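Supplementary notes for students who missed Thursday's class. We covered one full example, reproduced here. Read the sequence, then the structure, then the short commentary at the end.
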Amino acid sequence: MKKFTSLSFALVLISLASCTERIDLDLNDQDGRRLVVEGWFTNEEKQHEVNLTWTTSYFANEAAPRVEGALLNITDGDNNWELSETAPGVYLTPIVAGVPNTTYTINIEVEGEEYTASSFLREVAPVDSLHVRVLDPFEEFGFPGDSYYSVRIWTQELPGTGDRYMWQTYVNNESVRDTLRELTFVDDEAYDGVYVEDIEVDYLDIETEATIGDTVLIEQYNIGEEAYDIFIGIMNETQWNGGLFDAPPANVETNLSNGALGYWGAAGISTKSTIIAE
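Structure (token representation):
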């Protein structure tokens, strides 16, 4: 699950054609820019972060422009939390904890345009135990490879299908995963209501990502079905495509209105930490 697209075949076909026709593609210039939203609202009592950027030109060799001066609020219908811009494009809520089984809505106003998204905050089971041990692929699975730290958890999966899980790993309070393709996320179809024991949810390179004495912390998210489907869609259009039998490219789904891209969601989170021993 941690697991580019070639144009060579298309170029061969073009070279064999008897004539050519100029095709101008709109590769997202300034006039076609769109808002990109990223953030979570969780059951943790803290300031929850929302990041806003603009899409940029396909040919631009620079970071996406940050969206400054936006107005944001999150509401559950009864309560309303205004977000403050603490850095260009970075917006924080006051210190607040989301409540499980509650729907939250974010409202964003940028340059006279309004965008919204709603998400249901699902309960999440606690991580009972976390263990990090050295794993030798040959000894464990029978194929060669470098040994690594296997990050393994014990947890009771919640009864009732519909739960979707994602794990984020931190070493000494620093995240070691910063892209979707690096994260592990699964549905509960095969694990509904069972006690999950000693299952690997991440791995760490020895010495380069972690070493003896480091503190490893796992965040277990219950992201729900909508977020899971959107993330699978993103991966299908990016990291998991390029095969001969792939479906034609399509726009990636989002839960945001008015043509915005990205995802904003609510999720239950539980955490557990451990120190790597010899």
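Commentary. The helical segments are 8-16, 137-141, 224-237. The two ends are 28 Å apart (CA to CA). If anything here is unclear, bring it to office hours.
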